[in-house]
Amino acid sequence: MGRRYRWLRAEWPISMRTLGKRLKARPFGSDVTHGFVIDRIRDDLVEARYVERLEYTETITDPFGAELRFERVEFRQSFFRATAFGAGLEIRDPPRSVQPLMNRLSEATDFQVAITPHSVDVLAWAAKFQSASSLSVLVDSLQMNSLQVEEGVIAKVVIKGDRDVRHACSTLAHNRKFSLERIQLRLAKPNAGTVILSNTAAVTLNLDDPDDALLEHLRAGLT
Amino acid sequence: MSEFLDHLSANDNDIYDLLISGKQRLTESVLRELARDRGIFCSPEDDRDDLADYLSVLPHGFHDVAAIVQKREPGHRREKTTFVRLNTVMPVEELKAAAAEYAAAVMGKENVVYRPAAADGFVVNVVYDEFNRSRTRLLQRDRQEADIEFVVQDGQTLVRLPATDKAKKIVAALKENVERRRKATIDEEGIELTGLTTPEQRSKFFTRLISTLPKFRLRNVMSLKVSSHLSEDGEDDEALDLEDQDEEEAGAEMFAAVVHSMHLSGQNLVQSQEYKDLTARGFYITAISWRSEAEGNPPDIIQFDAGFQDRKRGTGFKYAIQGAFRAHKGSHRKTIVHVNDAEKTRLLALLESTARQVLTDLLAEAKEANEAVEGGLDGTEV
After folding, report:
1. Cβ A110–B295 below 8 Å, yes or no?
2. Which of A61, A97, B261, B381 is least surrounded by Cβ atoms within 10 Å, i.e. has the fewest?
């Protein structure tokens, strides 16, 4: 299973040290249902986790109508990295909804922070990534949406190939309007595997040996 | 003679207006049913207009018309709630007497029912008619209901009422009845932001309210109303510079495009860039609707709504529980459902106490800030 990252644009009104301090004031523990666990605070970044404990009762009815009840406990964690530079907020393996995290961050900053989606041009991002990392990168799959086939008719297309598919994509599109949603980059050794970039500034890494340098290049490519 | 009858009976035109206006309630199938009740089958190709047209020329007795009017009535309207606190304990007997007095005063016009409720509470239910002369003849009377609840809480009486003018009048009348008996005035306390003058403090009231609701955590803000502190009918520059005011105002109206208020709707609005830009330009929140998730079991998501009747002055706090998204297998159901009365009362009470607490805190902070500013200006004695 790959590791996913997502970037959101955030403008922090306070310094990272202050943010760290405020998050520390809302710690997660056994006596509270949600809070933060701080991993790292630097002058320009905070790495932390937002943890929620969810308790609920699951009811299952057996074939004879008797109810079985189970008390369930779940933990939801959102790893995030707030930075004073770059995109501003990076979330690792984001849960289905990042709303709770966003609201807690808002509360910590007295509702002064703006967190907005980041949309990127995936091809430009991929190009920057390639030139920065100087790895051999192959675009072997891409997904386009809203390809205008006819007036009022659109197609969603996934293109896969054993070589660079960008040329095939432009042949298919043939001057028609479309939006590029996702591209998959295949990396040669030593980091064999795939990197999927999406236009919502999200990345899925399926690599044998992911390293931080790679991630750093991806972050740099965003801005 | 015929003119006199016109006042007492409904003619075909009145019935047509009645049938055609209630698109929500009197649907095509309801109209067909009305015809079927008379043993008439209409063509399935007739549309609503044709059906209403045909039905209206049939003979209608009083009960026929009354039945249509009843069908046409909208389902119980959900008014927002508001509350006042009276700084005294009102025993049930006293309230009963006051309610009886009120009932006698409005005999024949309003239907007053009152009963004691649990835990020294008292409920007055008033059914009254509202008239709207601009509507079609058979729809001018609108039956309204106001449920007024008195709850005794730590030495004070909390009155919860619908946020309508009529309900406020009823409460004022009841209070006056009690005051007359006691020969003493009773102080009222409500949520008013008149003491908070800056846009930041006004907005803070709402952001604190949504974030400090005990046992709840904020999930989503879907609707925000913001107003500018420079909004219309500013009472700042009254009566000064009378002579050149006219000219200046005319000039301002001619050239300046001014936004006084805005209604934002969407998801996670308090995190949006737009909201941030607006607050930077001096806009503040005057109404909000948001969802919070309950802590504990079951973790339902409740949708709340709060705002002020008078946005500029920040008076007439009103609020509502719009419904709940029930927790289901670790996630939430997609449809909003009604919240039952007991739960609603609990949630409203929570909202009230939080609003009071937030306001007290903010007023204290505002006072401190003012003192700090004054101290800074004088700067000598400290």
Report:
1. no
2. B381
Best mutation site among A103, A104, A113, A116 for testing chain B: the one with the most B CBs within 10 Å? A103
What six digits make up the tokens of A102?
Answer: 């966003």
Which residue in chain A is spatially nearest to B326 when comparing CA positions? A56
Report DSSP state, residue B326.
Answer: -
3-state class of B321 per DSSP? strand
B-chain residues near A56 (CB < 8 A) = 297-299, 327, 329-330
**pLDDT tens for each residue of B97-131:** 888 888 888 888 888 888 888 777 888 888 888 88
Q: How far is B211 from chain A (nearest CA, A)?
A: 7
Instruction: Determine which of A32, A76, A97, A111 to mutate to test the interface with B (most B C-beta atoms within 10 Å).
Output: A111
Give the pLDDT mean for A171-191. Answer: 84
- Tell me, what DSSP letter sits at residue A27? B
Q: Which residue has the tokens 């009152």?
A: B114
CB contact at 8 A, B214 and B354: yes
For the stretch B327-367, pLDDT in tens is: 887 788 888 888 888 888 889 888 888 998 899 898 888 88
ipTM score of complex: 0.78
Is the minimum CB–CB distance between B297 and chain A shorter than 8 Å?
Answer: yes
CA atoms within 13 A on the CB side of B52: 18
Helix, strand, or coil (residue B349)? helix
- The candidate with the shortest Cα–Cα distance to B113, out of B82, B77, B147, B78, is B147
Chain B residue with minimum CA distance to A107: B211
Distance separating alpha carbons of residues B161 and B178, to the nearest angstrom: 17
Inter-chain residue contact A114 with B276, CB threshold 8 Å: yes
Q: What CA–CA distance (Å, rounded) separates A56 from B328?
A: 9
A73: pLDDT strictly greater than 60:
yes
CA A166/CA A170 separation, integer angstroms = 6
* A118: Cα within 13 Å, side-chain hemisphere: 26
- CA-based max dimension of chain A: 65
Distances (CA, A) of B338 to B144, B168, B217, B299, B324: 20, 26, 20, 16, 6
**pLDDT < 70: residue spans in chain B:** 1-7, 75-77, 230-256, 374-382
* Smallest Cα distance from B229 to chain A, Å: 19
pTM of the predicted structure, to 2 decimals: 0.78
Q: Before B298, cis peptide (omega within 30)?
A: yes
Dihedral angle computed from the Cα positions of residues B231, B236, B238 and B242, in that order, rounded to the nearest 10 degrees: -90
Amino acid at B88: T
Q: State how far Cα B333 lies from the chain centre.
A: 27
B298, B286, B292: which is closest to B323 by C-alpha? B292
The helix (H) or strand (E) run that includes residue B318 is strand B315-325
> What is d(CA B121, CA B85) in angstroms, rounded to the nearest whole number?
14
What does the alpha-carbon distance between residue B2 and residue B231 come to, in Å, rounded to a whole number? 54
Q: In this structure, are residues A184 and A165 in contact, taking their beta carbons and an 8 Å threshold?
A: no
Partners of B211 on chain A (C-beta within 8 Å) are 103, 106-107, 111
